[in-house]
Protein backbone atom coordinates (compact mmCIF):
# COMPACT_ATOMS: atom_id res chain seq x y z
CA UNK A 1 0.00 0.00 0.00
CA UNK A 2 2.82 2.40 0.88
CA UNK A 3 4.35 1.77 -2.51
CA UNK A 4 1.06 2.44 -4.27
CA UNK A 5 0.61 5.66 -2.31
CA UNK A 6 4.11 6.72 -3.28
CA UNK A 7 3.43 6.07 -6.96
CA UNK A 8 0.10 7.91 -6.75
CA UNK A 9 1.66 10.92 -5.04
CA UNK A 10 4.51 11.18 -7.55
CA UNK A 11 2.12 10.71 -10.46
CA UNK A 12 0.22 13.79 -9.31
CA UNK A 13 3.28 15.94 -9.86
CA UNK A 14 4.14 14.66 -13.31
CA UNK A 15 2.08 17.49 -14.70
CA UNK A 16 2.47 20.10 -11.97
CA UNK A 17 0.54 22.83 -13.75
CA UNK A 18 -2.48 20.63 -14.39
CA UNK A 19 -2.56 19.33 -10.81
CA UNK A 20 -2.21 22.85 -9.41
CA UNK A 21 -5.00 24.15 -11.65
CA UNK A 22 -7.29 21.31 -10.61
CA UNK A 23 -6.47 21.88 -6.96
CA UNK A 24 -7.07 25.60 -7.33
CA UNK A 25 -10.57 25.01 -8.65
CA UNK A 26 -11.27 22.61 -5.78
CA UNK A 27 -9.81 25.06 -3.25
CA UNK A 28 -12.01 27.89 -4.53
CA UNK A 29 -15.12 25.74 -4.48
CA UNK A 30 -14.33 24.24 -1.05
CA UNK A 31 -13.56 27.67 0.45
CA UNK A 32 -16.85 29.00 -0.89
CA UNK A 33 -18.71 25.95 0.36
CA UNK A 34 -17.23 26.27 3.86
CA UNK A 35 -17.75 30.00 3.95
CA UNK A 36 -21.40 29.91 2.88
CA UNK A 37 -22.13 26.90 5.06
CA UNK A 38 -20.54 28.56 8.09
CA UNK A 39 -22.55 31.69 7.40
CA UNK A 40 -25.79 29.73 7.10
CA UNK A 41 -25.18 27.59 10.13
CA UNK A 42 -24.08 30.63 12.09
CA UNK A 43 -27.24 32.54 11.31
CA UNK A 44 -29.41 29.49 12.05
CA UNK A 45 -27.58 29.04 15.32
CA UNK A 46 -28.10 32.67 16.15
CA UNK A 47 -31.81 32.50 15.38
CA UNK A 48 -32.21 29.34 17.41
CA UNK A 49 -30.15 30.65 20.29
CA UNK A 50 -32.14 33.89 20.36
CA UNK A 51 -35.40 32.02 20.27
CA UNK A 52 -34.35 29.52 22.90
CA UNK A 53 -32.70 31.90 25.32
CA UNK A 54 -34.83 34.99 25.01
CA UNK A 55 -38.13 33.36 24.40
CA UNK A 56 -39.06 29.73 24.57
CA UNK A 57 -36.24 27.84 26.29
CA UNK A 58 -35.26 24.42 24.94
CA UNK A 59 -38.66 23.21 25.91
CA UNK A 60 -41.68 24.45 27.76
CA UNK A 61 -44.17 22.93 30.09
CA UNK A 62 -47.61 24.44 29.61
CA UNK A 63 -51.13 23.74 30.74
CA UNK A 64 -52.97 21.63 28.21
CA UNK A 65 -54.72 23.98 25.76
CA UNK A 66 -52.53 27.03 26.37
CA UNK A 67 -50.65 26.63 23.09
CA UNK A 68 -53.88 26.79 21.07
CA UNK A 69 -55.41 29.57 23.14
CA UNK A 70 -52.82 31.74 24.84
CA UNK A 71 -55.02 33.03 27.59
CA UNK A 72 -54.28 33.71 31.24
CA UNK A 73 -57.13 31.32 31.92
CA UNK A 74 -55.00 28.45 30.60
CA UNK A 75 -52.45 28.71 33.34
CA UNK A 76 -51.32 26.19 35.92
CA UNK A 77 -50.31 26.43 39.54
CA UNK A 78 -46.60 26.74 40.14
CA UNK A 79 -45.91 24.24 42.94
CA UNK A 80 -42.62 22.97 44.35
CA UNK A 81 -43.75 19.39 43.63
CA UNK A 82 -44.29 20.15 39.97
CA UNK A 83 -41.01 22.03 39.76
CA UNK A 84 -39.23 19.13 41.41
CA UNK A 85 -40.62 16.68 38.84
CA UNK A 86 -38.79 18.70 36.20
CA UNK A 87 -35.62 19.73 37.97
CA UNK A 88 -34.83 16.18 39.05
CA UNK A 89 -33.96 15.37 35.44
CA UNK A 90 -30.16 15.50 35.24
CA UNK A 91 -30.10 17.41 31.98
CA UNK A 92 -32.31 20.21 33.27
CA UNK A 93 -30.26 23.26 34.14
CA UNK A 94 -32.74 26.05 34.81
CA UNK A 95 -36.52 26.21 35.00
CA UNK A 96 -37.95 29.69 34.51
CA UNK A 97 -41.55 30.04 35.64
CA UNK A 98 -43.18 32.73 33.54
CA UNK A 99 -46.56 34.32 33.31
CA UNK A 100 -46.83 35.77 29.85
CA UNK A 101 -49.69 37.76 28.46
CA UNK A 102 -50.56 41.00 26.77
CA UNK A 103 -51.60 44.37 28.05
CA UNK A 104 -52.00 47.91 26.86
CA UNK A 105 -49.29 50.20 28.20
CA UNK A 106 -50.08 53.84 28.50
CA UNK A 107 -48.18 56.93 29.47
CA UNK A 108 -49.55 60.36 28.86
CA UNK A 109 -51.09 60.44 25.41
CA UNK A 110 -49.28 57.35 24.23
CA UNK A 111 -50.67 53.85 24.37
CA UNK A 112 -49.31 50.66 22.89
CA UNK A 113 -49.98 46.91 23.01
CA UNK A 114 -47.19 45.18 24.88
CA UNK A 115 -45.96 41.74 25.72
CA UNK A 116 -45.73 41.26 29.49
CA UNK A 117 -43.32 38.71 30.85
CA UNK A 118 -43.65 38.21 34.56
CA UNK A 119 -40.79 36.09 35.74
CA UNK A 120 -38.45 35.31 38.59
CA UNK A 121 -35.85 38.07 38.02
CA UNK A 122 -33.01 36.08 39.51
CA UNK A 123 -33.55 32.92 37.48
CA UNK A 124 -34.38 34.85 34.34
CA UNK A 125 -31.15 36.77 34.68
CA UNK A 126 -29.20 33.55 34.98
CA UNK A 127 -30.70 32.50 31.72
CA UNK A 128 -30.78 35.66 29.65
CA UNK A 129 -28.37 37.99 31.39
CA UNK A 130 -31.02 40.67 31.17
CA UNK A 131 -29.17 42.86 33.62
CA UNK A 132 -26.43 43.16 30.97
CA UNK A 133 -28.99 44.62 28.61
CA UNK A 134 -29.88 47.45 30.97
CA UNK A 135 -29.07 50.79 29.42
CA UNK A 136 -30.56 52.83 32.24
CA UNK A 137 -31.81 52.22 35.79
CA UNK A 138 -31.54 49.03 37.82
CA UNK A 139 -32.46 45.40 37.49
CA UNK A 140 -35.54 43.94 39.18
CA UNK A 141 -35.67 42.12 42.48
CA UNK A 142 -38.15 39.42 43.39
CA UNK A 143 -40.38 41.64 45.51
CA UNK A 144 -40.31 44.73 43.32
CA UNK A 145 -43.55 46.20 42.12
CA UNK A 146 -41.78 47.89 39.25
CA UNK A 147 -41.08 47.05 35.61
CA UNK A 148 -38.32 47.00 33.03
CA UNK A 149 -39.30 48.50 29.68
CA UNK A 150 -37.72 47.72 26.33
CA UNK A 151 -35.83 50.64 24.83
CA UNK A 152 -37.99 51.35 21.77
CA UNK A 153 -41.20 50.88 23.71
CA UNK A 154 -39.95 53.37 26.32
CA UNK A 155 -39.13 55.78 23.51
CA UNK A 156 -42.62 55.40 22.08
CA UNK A 157 -44.29 55.85 25.42
CA UNK A 158 -41.83 58.62 26.28
CA UNK A 159 -41.02 57.17 29.67
CA UNK A 160 -37.71 57.16 31.49
CA UNK A 161 -36.46 55.52 34.66
CA UNK A 162 -38.61 56.69 37.58
CA UNK A 163 -41.62 57.50 35.41
CA UNK A 164 -44.89 55.67 35.82
CA UNK A 165 -46.85 53.80 33.21
CA UNK A 166 -50.28 52.28 33.31
CA UNK A 167 -51.00 48.73 32.24
CA UNK A 168 -54.45 47.60 31.26
CA UNK A 169 -55.42 44.08 30.32
CA UNK A 170 -57.62 41.09 30.96
CA UNK A 171 -56.80 38.98 33.99
CA UNK A 172 -57.59 35.48 35.16
CA UNK A 173 -61.22 34.44 34.44
CA UNK A 174 -62.14 37.80 32.93
CA UNK A 175 -61.05 40.00 35.80
CA UNK A 176 -59.94 43.40 34.65
CA UNK A 177 -56.21 43.85 35.12
CA UNK A 178 -55.21 47.44 35.69
CA UNK A 179 -52.31 48.90 37.61
CA UNK A 180 -49.61 51.50 37.44
CA UNK A 181 -45.94 50.70 37.71
CA UNK A 182 -42.80 52.67 38.11
CA UNK A 183 -40.16 52.13 35.44
CA UNK A 184 -37.12 50.70 37.20
CA UNK A 185 -34.94 50.24 34.15
CA UNK A 186 -34.71 50.43 30.37
CA UNK A 187 -33.43 47.38 28.54
CA UNK A 188 -32.15 47.15 25.03
CA UNK A 189 -32.82 43.93 23.16
CA UNK A 190 -30.94 43.02 20.02
CA UNK A 191 -34.14 41.68 18.48
CA UNK A 192 -36.31 44.58 17.31
CA UNK A 193 -39.52 42.59 17.78
CA UNK A 194 -38.78 42.37 21.49
CA UNK A 195 -37.24 45.80 21.73
CA UNK A 196 -40.49 47.35 20.49
CA UNK A 197 -42.95 45.75 22.86
CA UNK A 198 -41.52 43.96 25.87
CA UNK A 199 -42.14 44.68 29.53
CA UNK A 200 -40.55 42.59 32.26
CA UNK A 201 -41.94 42.48 35.77
CA UNK A 202 -41.36 40.22 38.76
CA UNK A 203 -43.50 37.07 38.76
CA UNK A 204 -45.33 37.98 41.94
CA UNK A 205 -46.25 41.43 40.61
CA UNK A 206 -47.47 39.90 37.36
CA UNK A 207 -49.58 37.31 39.18
CA UNK A 208 -51.19 40.09 41.18
CA UNK A 209 -51.73 42.19 38.07
CA UNK A 210 -53.52 39.37 36.25
CA UNK A 211 -55.15 38.08 39.46
CA UNK A 212 -53.57 34.74 38.60
CA UNK A 213 -52.18 34.09 42.07
CA UNK A 214 -49.56 31.30 42.22
CA UNK A 215 -50.21 30.63 38.53
CA UNK A 216 -47.86 30.62 35.54
CA UNK A 217 -48.38 30.15 31.81
CA UNK A 218 -45.15 28.30 31.16
CA UNK A 219 -42.08 26.77 32.59
CA UNK A 220 -39.31 27.58 30.16
CA UNK A 221 -36.60 25.02 30.63
CA UNK A 222 -32.93 25.28 29.76
CA UNK A 223 -30.86 22.12 29.53
CA UNK A 224 -27.16 21.52 29.82
CA UNK A 225 -26.82 19.19 26.82
CA UNK A 226 -29.03 20.21 23.89
CA UNK A 227 -28.11 16.99 22.04
CA UNK A 228 -30.13 15.06 24.62
CA UNK A 229 -33.18 17.23 24.14
CA UNK A 230 -35.45 14.46 22.82
CA UNK A 231 -34.61 12.07 25.65
CA UNK A 232 -35.09 14.84 28.22
CA UNK A 233 -38.46 15.88 26.79
CA UNK A 234 -39.59 12.26 26.71
CA UNK A 235 -38.47 11.81 30.33
CA UNK A 236 -40.34 14.89 31.51
CA UNK A 237 -43.46 13.92 29.57
CA UNK A 238 -43.52 10.58 31.32
CA UNK A 239 -43.25 12.32 34.71
CA UNK A 240 -46.14 14.74 34.20
CA UNK A 241 -49.86 14.14 34.12
CA UNK A 242 -52.13 14.81 31.12
CA UNK A 243 -52.94 18.30 32.43
CA UNK A 244 -49.59 19.43 31.09
CA UNK A 245 -48.05 19.40 27.70
CA UNK A 246 -44.33 19.51 26.95
CA UNK A 247 -43.19 21.15 23.70
CA UNK A 248 -39.63 21.44 22.48
CA UNK A 249 -38.25 24.54 20.79
CA UNK A 250 -38.87 23.20 17.28
CA UNK A 251 -42.59 22.92 18.02
CA UNK A 252 -42.62 26.27 19.77
CA UNK A 253 -40.87 28.01 16.86
CA UNK A 254 -42.41 26.24 13.89
CA UNK A 255 -42.23 29.23 11.56
CA UNK A 256 -38.60 29.76 12.29
CA UNK A 257 -37.81 26.08 11.85
CA UNK A 258 -39.59 26.06 8.50
CA UNK A 259 -37.77 29.20 7.41
CA UNK A 260 -34.46 27.59 8.36
CA UNK A 261 -35.37 24.40 6.54
CA UNK A 262 -36.32 26.18 3.33
CA UNK A 263 -33.25 28.38 3.46
CA UNK A 264 -31.16 25.30 4.10
CA UNK A 265 -32.49 23.69 0.92
CA UNK A 266 -31.21 26.72 -1.01
CA UNK A 267 -27.88 26.29 0.70
CA UNK A 268 -27.77 22.61 -0.20
CA UNK A 269 -28.45 23.43 -3.86
CA UNK A 270 -25.60 25.93 -3.80
CA UNK A 271 -23.39 23.29 -2.21
CA UNK A 272 -24.46 20.83 -4.89
CA UNK A 273 -23.31 23.26 -7.60
CA UNK A 274 -19.98 23.76 -5.85
CA UNK A 275 -19.55 20.02 -5.48
CA UNK A 276 -20.22 19.63 -9.19
CA UNK A 277 -17.43 22.10 -9.90
CA UNK A 278 -15.15 20.04 -7.68
CA UNK A 279 -16.33 16.79 -9.26
CA UNK A 280 -15.83 17.90 -12.86
CA UNK A 281 -12.41 19.32 -12.06
CA UNK A 282 -11.31 16.04 -10.57
CA UNK A 283 -12.96 13.98 -13.26
CA UNK A 284 -11.25 15.89 -16.09
CA UNK A 285 -7.83 15.62 -14.52
CA UNK A 286 -8.08 11.98 -13.57
CA UNK A 287 -9.54 11.07 -16.96
CA UNK A 288 -6.60 12.77 -18.70
CA UNK A 289 -4.10 11.23 -16.32
CA UNK A 290 -5.58 7.80 -16.94
CA UNK A 291 -5.84 8.03 -20.70
CA UNK A 292 -2.35 9.39 -21.22
CA UNK A 293 -0.88 6.58 -19.13
CA UNK A 294 -2.67 3.70 -20.81
CA UNK A 295 0.59 2.27 -22.09
CA UNK A 296 2.24 2.58 -18.71
CA UNK A 297 -0.70 0.87 -17.06
CA UNK A 298 -0.59 -1.89 -19.66
CA UNK A 299 3.10 -2.49 -18.91
CA UNK A 300 2.37 -2.64 -15.20
CA UNK A 301 -0.30 -5.25 -15.78
CA UNK A 302 1.97 -7.14 -18.17
CA UNK A 303 4.71 -7.42 -15.56
CA UNK A 304 2.25 -8.69 -12.98
CA UNK A 305 0.34 -5.88 -11.32
CA UNK A 306 -3.30 -6.73 -10.76
CA UNK A 307 -5.84 -4.31 -12.19
CA UNK A 308 -7.29 -3.91 -8.72
CA UNK A 309 -4.00 -2.40 -7.53
CA UNK A 310 -3.90 -0.10 -10.51
CA UNK A 311 -7.45 0.84 -9.64
CA UNK A 312 -6.21 1.76 -6.15
CA UNK A 313 -3.38 3.90 -7.51
CA UNK A 314 -5.83 5.98 -9.57
CA UNK A 315 -8.25 6.19 -6.66
CA UNK A 316 -5.44 7.35 -4.35
CA UNK A 317 -4.45 9.99 -6.91
CA UNK A 318 -7.97 11.36 -7.00
CA UNK A 319 -8.38 11.33 -3.25
CA UNK A 320 -4.96 12.93 -2.79
CA UNK A 321 -5.86 15.82 -5.10
CA UNK A 322 -9.05 16.31 -3.11
CA UNK A 323 -7.48 16.01 0.33
CA UNK A 324 -4.51 18.28 -0.41
CA UNK A 325 -6.87 20.88 -1.88
CA UNK A 326 -9.13 20.51 1.13
CA UNK A 327 -6.29 20.97 3.63
CA UNK A 328 -5.22 24.15 1.81
CA UNK A 329 -8.86 25.30 1.82
CA UNK A 330 -9.05 24.74 5.58
CA UNK A 331 -5.81 26.64 6.14
CA UNK A 332 -7.23 29.56 4.15
CA UNK A 333 -10.79 29.45 5.41
CA UNK A 334 -10.47 28.64 9.10
CA UNK A 335 -8.75 31.88 10.23
CA UNK A 336 -11.31 33.93 8.28
CA UNK A 337 -14.20 32.02 9.80
CA UNK A 338 -12.60 32.29 13.23
CA UNK A 339 -12.40 36.07 12.83
CA UNK A 340 -16.03 36.36 11.78
CA UNK A 341 -17.09 33.95 14.50
CA UNK A 342 -15.92 36.49 17.06
CA UNK A 343 -16.79 39.54 14.95
CA UNK A 344 -20.11 38.89 13.21
CA UNK A 345 -20.97 41.11 10.26
CA UNK A 346 -23.71 43.65 11.16
CA UNK A 347 -26.53 43.59 8.63
CA UNK A 348 -28.48 46.45 7.18
CA UNK A 349 -31.41 46.95 4.82
CA UNK A 350 -33.44 44.03 3.49
CA UNK A 351 -31.19 41.38 5.00
CA UNK A 352 -31.58 42.96 8.40
CA UNK A 353 -35.37 43.14 8.00
CA UNK A 354 -35.54 39.48 6.98
CA UNK A 355 -33.59 38.48 10.06
CA UNK A 356 -35.71 40.65 12.30
CA UNK A 357 -38.84 39.09 10.84
CA UNK A 358 -37.77 35.82 12.37
CA UNK A 359 -36.88 37.39 15.65
CA UNK A 360 -33.17 37.23 15.13
CA UNK A 361 -30.52 39.79 15.75
CA UNK A 362 -29.61 41.53 12.45
CA UNK A 363 -26.07 40.24 12.36
CA UNK A 364 -24.37 37.61 10.24
CA UNK A 365 -22.65 35.34 12.72
CA UNK A 366 -20.41 32.51 11.50
CA UNK A 367 -20.32 28.99 12.79
CA UNK A 368 -17.24 26.94 13.56
CA UNK A 369 -19.30 23.79 13.89
CA UNK A 370 -17.06 20.76 13.28
CA UNK A 371 -19.79 19.35 11.01
CA UNK A 372 -19.02 21.97 8.39
CA UNK A 373 -15.45 20.78 8.03
CA UNK A 374 -16.17 17.09 8.50
CA UNK A 375 -18.94 17.18 5.89
CA UNK A 376 -16.68 18.95 3.39
CA UNK A 377 -14.00 16.33 3.91
CA UNK A 378 -16.44 13.48 3.48
CA UNK A 379 -18.03 15.16 0.46
CA UNK A 380 -14.67 15.62 -1.25
CA UNK A 381 -13.75 11.98 -0.61
CA UNK A 382 -17.09 10.78 -1.98
CA UNK A 383 -16.78 13.12 -4.99
CA UNK A 384 -13.23 11.90 -5.58
CA UNK A 385 -14.50 8.34 -5.54
CA UNK A 386 -17.35 9.11 -7.94
CA UNK A 387 -15.10 11.17 -10.22
CA UNK A 388 -12.67 8.30 -10.49
CA UNK A 389 -15.30 5.67 -11.27
CA UNK A 390 -15.36 6.19 -15.02
CA UNK A 391 -11.56 6.28 -15.42
CA UNK A 392 -11.43 3.22 -13.20
CA UNK A 393 -13.87 1.30 -15.36
CA UNK A 394 -11.64 2.22 -18.31
CA UNK A 395 -8.74 0.59 -16.51
CA UNK A 396 -10.71 -2.52 -15.73
CA UNK A 397 -11.79 -2.85 -19.35
CA UNK A 398 -8.74 -2.01 -21.35
CA UNK A 399 -6.87 -4.57 -23.41
CA UNK A 400 -3.28 -4.82 -22.30
CA UNK A 401 -1.74 -5.41 -25.73
CA UNK A 402 -3.84 -2.74 -27.40
CA UNK A 403 -2.76 -0.24 -24.78
CA UNK A 404 0.88 -1.32 -25.05
CA UNK A 405 0.82 -0.62 -28.77
CA UNK A 406 -0.83 2.78 -28.30
CA UNK B 1 11.86 -31.39 -19.73
CA UNK B 2 10.68 -28.27 -21.55
CA UNK B 3 10.04 -25.20 -19.52
CA UNK B 4 7.79 -23.77 -22.25
CA UNK B 5 6.00 -25.62 -24.99
CA UNK B 6 3.32 -24.71 -27.44
CA UNK B 7 0.92 -27.10 -29.12
CA UNK B 8 -0.52 -26.13 -32.52
CA UNK B 9 -0.65 -22.52 -31.54
CA UNK B 10 -2.77 -20.35 -33.80
CA UNK B 11 -3.49 -16.67 -33.59
CA UNK B 12 -5.75 -15.29 -36.26
CA UNK B 13 -6.45 -11.55 -36.38
CA UNK B 14 -9.63 -10.13 -37.99
CA UNK B 15 -11.05 -13.61 -38.21
CA UNK B 16 -14.42 -12.43 -39.59
CA UNK B 17 -13.17 -10.00 -42.24
CA UNK B 18 -9.69 -10.54 -43.63
CA UNK B 19 -8.16 -13.27 -41.48
CA UNK B 20 -4.43 -12.92 -40.87
CA UNK B 21 -2.61 -15.93 -39.40
CA UNK B 22 -0.08 -14.29 -37.13
CA UNK B 23 0.96 -17.72 -35.88
CA UNK B 24 0.06 -20.83 -37.77
CA UNK B 25 0.05 -24.18 -35.97
CA UNK B 26 3.22 -23.45 -34.06
CA UNK B 27 4.49 -26.25 -31.86
CA UNK B 28 7.78 -25.47 -30.22
CA UNK B 29 9.63 -26.28 -26.98
CA UNK B 30 12.12 -24.23 -24.99
CA UNK B 31 14.35 -25.84 -22.38
CA UNK B 32 15.59 -24.41 -19.09
CA UNK B 33 18.74 -22.32 -19.60
CA UNK B 34 18.24 -21.61 -23.29
CA UNK B 35 19.49 -18.39 -24.85
CA UNK B 36 17.22 -18.35 -27.89
CA UNK B 37 16.01 -15.92 -30.44
CA UNK B 38 12.82 -15.93 -32.48
CA UNK B 39 13.79 -14.29 -35.73
CA UNK B 40 12.30 -13.39 -39.06
CA UNK B 41 11.20 -10.44 -41.15
CA UNK B 42 8.80 -7.79 -39.96
CA UNK B 43 5.23 -9.10 -39.66
CA UNK B 44 6.30 -12.75 -39.53
CA UNK B 45 4.68 -13.24 -36.10
CA UNK B 46 7.69 -12.95 -33.75
CA UNK B 47 6.09 -10.54 -31.32
CA UNK B 48 2.76 -12.35 -31.45
CA UNK B 49 4.47 -15.61 -30.55
CA UNK B 50 6.35 -13.92 -27.73
CA UNK B 51 3.12 -12.37 -26.44
CA UNK B 52 1.40 -15.74 -26.59
CA UNK B 53 4.26 -17.30 -24.63
CA UNK B 54 3.97 -14.55 -22.05
CA UNK B 55 0.21 -14.88 -21.68
CA UNK B 56 -0.34 -11.35 -22.96
CA UNK B 57 -2.25 -12.61 -25.96
CA UNK B 58 -4.96 -15.26 -26.08
CA UNK B 59 -4.52 -17.80 -28.86
CA UNK B 60 -7.32 -18.53 -31.32
CA UNK B 61 -6.52 -22.20 -30.82
CA UNK B 62 -3.78 -24.34 -29.37
CA UNK B 63 -2.04 -24.34 -26.02
CA UNK B 64 0.83 -22.71 -24.22
CA UNK B 65 2.23 -24.89 -21.46
CA UNK B 66 4.64 -23.40 -18.97
CA UNK B 67 6.23 -25.64 -16.40
CA UNK B 68 3.48 -28.25 -17.02
CA UNK B 69 0.70 -25.69 -16.59
CA UNK B 70 -1.61 -24.82 -19.48
CA UNK B 71 -1.78 -21.05 -19.23
CA UNK B 72 -4.24 -20.59 -22.06
CA UNK B 73 -7.03 -21.69 -19.72
CA UNK B 74 -6.26 -19.15 -17.01
CA UNK B 75 -8.50 -16.19 -16.25
CA UNK B 76 -7.18 -12.67 -16.73
CA UNK B 77 -6.24 -12.04 -13.08
CA UNK B 78 -4.80 -15.55 -12.72
CA UNK B 79 -2.66 -14.90 -15.77
CA UNK B 80 -1.45 -11.61 -14.31
CA UNK B 81 -0.44 -13.41 -11.15
CA UNK B 82 1.16 -16.19 -13.15
CA UNK B 83 3.22 -13.67 -15.13
CA UNK B 84 4.30 -11.98 -11.93
CA UNK B 85 5.66 -15.20 -10.47
CA UNK B 86 7.00 -16.93 -13.54
CA UNK B 87 7.85 -14.58 -16.39
CA UNK B 88 10.17 -11.62 -16.70
CA UNK B 89 9.58 -9.13 -19.51
CA UNK B 90 11.98 -6.82 -21.27
CA UNK B 91 10.37 -4.49 -23.79
CA UNK B 92 11.73 -2.64 -26.77
CA UNK B 93 10.91 0.77 -25.28
CA UNK B 94 12.21 -0.11 -21.76
CA UNK B 95 8.87 0.88 -20.23
CA UNK B 96 10.07 1.68 -16.75
CA UNK B 97 7.75 3.48 -14.35
CA UNK B 98 8.86 7.08 -14.87
CA UNK B 99 8.08 8.30 -11.35
CA UNK B 100 10.21 5.63 -9.69
CA UNK B 101 13.99 5.53 -9.41
CA UNK B 102 16.07 2.64 -10.82
CA UNK B 103 16.05 1.03 -7.37
CA UNK B 104 12.30 1.52 -6.94
CA UNK B 105 11.54 0.17 -10.41
CA UNK B 106 13.36 -3.04 -9.60
CA UNK B 107 11.90 -3.16 -6.11
CA UNK B 108 8.37 -2.56 -7.39
CA UNK B 109 7.94 -6.07 -8.75
CA UNK B 110 9.11 -7.49 -5.42
CA UNK B 111 6.59 -5.32 -3.59
CA UNK B 112 3.92 -6.97 -5.71
CA UNK B 113 5.22 -10.32 -4.50
CA UNK B 114 5.35 -9.18 -0.88
CA UNK B 115 9.07 -9.67 -0.38
CA UNK B 116 10.26 -8.24 2.93
CA UNK B 117 12.45 -5.15 3.06
CA UNK B 118 15.74 -6.97 3.70
CA UNK B 119 15.15 -9.38 0.83
CA UNK B 120 14.26 -6.50 -1.45
CA UNK B 121 17.30 -4.46 -0.55
CA UNK B 122 19.66 -7.38 -1.04
CA UNK B 123 18.15 -8.41 -4.37
CA UNK B 124 18.02 -4.87 -5.76
CA UNK B 125 21.64 -4.31 -4.87
CA UNK B 126 22.65 -7.62 -6.37
CA UNK B 127 20.75 -7.05 -9.62
CA UNK B 128 21.63 -3.42 -10.23
CA UNK B 129 25.25 -4.23 -9.51
CA UNK B 130 25.05 -7.16 -11.92
CA UNK B 131 23.76 -4.91 -14.69
CA UNK B 132 26.45 -2.32 -13.97
CA UNK B 133 24.29 0.38 -12.44
CA UNK B 134 25.60 0.42 -8.90
CA UNK B 135 26.06 4.19 -8.99
CA UNK B 136 22.67 4.92 -10.55
CA UNK B 137 20.36 3.46 -7.90
CA UNK B 138 18.55 6.70 -7.26
CA UNK B 139 18.24 7.99 -10.80
CA UNK B 140 14.84 8.17 -12.40
CA UNK B 141 14.41 6.76 -15.94
CA UNK B 142 14.50 10.26 -17.41
CA UNK B 143 18.00 10.70 -15.99
CA UNK B 144 19.35 7.48 -17.54
CA UNK B 145 20.48 6.72 -21.09
CA UNK B 146 18.53 4.24 -23.24
CA UNK B 147 21.09 1.51 -22.57
CA UNK B 148 20.96 2.15 -18.84
CA UNK B 149 17.17 2.10 -18.84
CA UNK B 150 17.17 -1.21 -20.65
CA UNK B 151 19.59 -2.60 -18.09
CA UNK B 152 17.24 -1.50 -15.32
CA UNK B 153 14.46 -3.25 -17.25
CA UNK B 154 16.53 -6.45 -17.28
CA UNK B 155 17.14 -6.12 -13.54
CA UNK B 156 13.42 -5.58 -13.04
CA UNK B 157 12.61 -8.65 -15.13
CA UNK B 158 14.91 -10.71 -12.97
CA UNK B 159 13.75 -9.28 -9.66
CA UNK B 160 10.86 -11.65 -9.19
CA UNK B 161 13.11 -14.66 -9.83
CA UNK B 162 11.13 -15.74 -12.90
CA UNK B 163 11.44 -19.06 -14.67
CA UNK B 164 12.36 -17.32 -17.93
CA UNK B 165 12.66 -13.92 -19.55
CA UNK B 166 10.90 -12.82 -22.71
CA UNK B 167 12.63 -9.92 -24.41
CA UNK B 168 10.86 -8.24 -27.30
CA UNK B 169 13.37 -6.46 -29.54
CA UNK B 170 15.38 -5.41 -26.47
CA UNK B 171 18.17 -3.81 -28.49
CA UNK B 172 16.07 -2.05 -31.13
CA UNK B 173 16.57 1.38 -29.57
CA UNK B 174 20.16 0.94 -28.46
CA UNK B 175 23.48 1.86 -30.04
CA UNK B 176 26.10 -0.85 -30.62
CA UNK B 177 27.98 -0.21 -27.42
CA UNK B 178 24.86 -0.42 -25.29
CA UNK B 179 23.66 -3.44 -27.24
CA UNK B 180 26.84 -5.39 -26.60
CA UNK B 181 26.91 -4.33 -22.97
CA UNK B 182 23.32 -5.52 -22.54
CA UNK B 183 23.95 -8.79 -24.32
CA UNK B 184 27.00 -9.38 -22.14
CA UNK B 185 24.92 -8.91 -19.05
CA UNK B 186 22.19 -11.24 -20.28
CA UNK B 187 24.68 -13.88 -21.31
CA UNK B 188 26.37 -13.71 -17.94
CA UNK B 189 23.03 -14.09 -16.14
CA UNK B 190 22.14 -16.96 -18.46
CA UNK B 191 25.38 -18.74 -17.73
CA UNK B 192 25.66 -18.00 -14.02
CA UNK B 193 22.04 -18.33 -12.98
CA UNK B 194 20.90 -20.68 -15.76
CA UNK B 195 18.23 -18.11 -16.58
CA UNK B 196 16.30 -18.83 -19.76
CA UNK B 197 16.16 -15.94 -22.26
CA UNK B 198 13.91 -15.89 -25.30
CA UNK B 199 14.26 -12.90 -27.60
CA UNK B 200 12.22 -11.78 -30.53
CA UNK B 201 14.60 -9.86 -32.73
CA UNK B 202 15.79 -9.02 -36.16
CA UNK B 203 19.03 -7.55 -34.81
CA UNK B 204 21.97 -9.50 -36.21
CA UNK B 205 24.02 -8.73 -33.07
CA UNK B 206 21.49 -10.61 -30.95
CA UNK B 207 21.24 -13.42 -33.47
CA UNK B 208 25.02 -13.83 -33.32
CA UNK B 209 24.93 -14.36 -29.60
CA UNK B 210 21.80 -16.54 -29.45
CA UNK B 211 22.54 -20.24 -29.20
CA UNK B 212 19.27 -21.19 -30.86
CA UNK B 213 17.45 -19.41 -33.68
CA UNK B 214 13.79 -20.14 -34.32
CA UNK B 215 12.97 -18.61 -37.70
CA UNK B 216 9.44 -17.62 -38.56
CA UNK B 217 7.84 -16.63 -41.81
CA UNK B 218 4.12 -15.95 -42.31
CA UNK B 219 3.41 -17.24 -38.83
CA UNK B 220 5.12 -20.61 -39.37
CA UNK B 221 8.40 -21.99 -38.12
CA UNK B 222 10.56 -22.32 -41.17
CA UNK B 223 13.82 -23.16 -39.44
CA UNK B 224 14.88 -24.15 -35.91
CA UNK B 225 18.62 -24.18 -35.55
CA UNK B 226 20.75 -24.80 -32.46
CA UNK B 227 24.34 -23.57 -32.74
Secondary structure elements and their pairing?
The complex is a heterodimer of chains A (406) and B (227).
Chain A: H1 2-12, H2 16-56, E1 59-63, E2 76-77, H3 80-87, E3 92-107, E4 110-119, H4 121-128, E5 134-137, E6 146-150, H5 151-157, E7 164-170, E8 176-187, H6 192-195, E9 198-202, H7 203-209, E10 215-216, E11 218-223, H8 229-239, E12 244-248, H9 249-252, H10 254-291, H11 294-302, H12 307-342, E13 345-346, H13 349-357, E14 363-364, H14 370-397, H15 400-405
Parallel strand pairs in A: 4-9, 6-8
Antiparallel strand pairs in A: 1-11, 1-12, 2-10, 3-4, 3-7, 3-11, 5-8, 6-9, 7-8, 13-14
Helix pairs in contact in A: 1-12, 2-10, 2-12, 10-12, 10-14, 12-14
Chain B: E1 2-13, E2 20-31, E3 35-39, H1 46-53, E4 61-66, E5 69-70, H2 76-86, E6 87-90, H3 102-112, H4 117-130, H5 146-159, E7 164-168, H6 176-193, E8 196-201, H7 204-209, E9 212-217, E10 220-226
Parallel strand pairs in B: 3-8, 3-9, 6-7, 7-8
Antiparallel strand pairs in B: 1-2, 1-4, 4-5, 9-10
Helix pairs in contact in B: 3-4, 3-5, 4-5, 5-6
What would you note in describing this structure?
Chain A is 56% helix and 20% strand. Chain A is built from 15 helices and 14 strands. The longest helix of chain A is centred in the first third of the chain and has 41 residues, at 16-56. Chain B has 227 residues and is α/β, with parallel strands linked by helices. Chain B has one domain (35-44, 77-226): P-loop containing nucleotide triphosphate hydrolases (Rossmann fold), CATH 3.40.50. Chain B is globular and about 50 Å long. The mean pLDDT of chain B is 88. The A-B interface holds A 3, 6-7, 10-11, 14, 295-296, 299-309, 400-401, 404 and B 51, 54, 56-57, 76-77, 80-81, 83-85, 89, 91, 95, 97-100, 104, 107-109, 111-113, 156-157, 160.
